[in-house]
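Continuing the series of single-chain predictions for the mutant panel. This is the parent chain; the variants come on the following pages.
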Amino acid sequence: MRSNNYNYILSTIFFISSITFSYAQKIPDFINPKDLKNVKFKCLEEFEVYSEEEQKYIDILWKESLQYLEAYAVALTTSPAGSSCIDSDVATYETVDGIGKLCVMERRDMQLMVKNIYQILHNPEAAKACFAARGNVDWLYSPGGELEARSEVAKWLDRTTFQEFFETKVSDPEVKAKGYTFSENFFRMVTGEKVKAPKNFPYDVSARSLPNLWASVGWFPMYAEESERNQKNFANVRGGYAYAEILGHWGLLRIDEINGQKVGAEVGMTVQAVNTLYSYHNHATSELYYTMRQPSCVNQFKTFAIRDTN
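Parent structure:
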């Protein structure tokens, strides 16, 4: 049985010399143009060698990954209409005692992340040495279904599908059932007409425009796995959530250092079923989300608050 009751969100986020970017990039003022020249990348693992046939698919995946990263960096450094922020998007962090907002690019960690993205964009050949499809990683999965069927890259990678994961790796019958529904609806969740790029994005970064990236990035239904921690979570979240990473230690582009400075950013996307609550939690790492579709939970929370330093 198929259902339309699904929503997804996009989380905070490479090219061959013939590729040109579709957006006229304006380098943010906090970036020294000298820092974008002759950049040195240290990868987390050895460069992966592909055959001529395989390289064709890698190049497609690389191009779409770069487009995603570029749009994300532009969005973060574009001021919304009427905002007092300079070259910065605005994030909401509180909705209880009024609406608490902050200029995201005033944060030093955000400036460093955007600088790293521009260093990648301006030195694509060097950065590409740290890029791989990671088809040999057995805990990265394909959504399968129509999304995979429409992607030549995903068909080449032939990752284990969500359907196979929930069938063989999950024992809880309720989580398994939720996972099957999640898998069956995944294509419509990420390509449906209600999916829209946030206003600050210069172009669409959904699966409609970047089909190979969304089908091939390598998804991890991290809360569905059998563990004591996961068993404390709600079954509909365990079976209705997946995370994918483009830039980061889990991702396709795995950079350890840029010009001798550690890279800690993780940029990717999440997909989560509606009418599910991502459990309350806290950790030291800051997170920022762009929503690519308006929430449609029937009993959604109207307010939520955290400290602006948390």
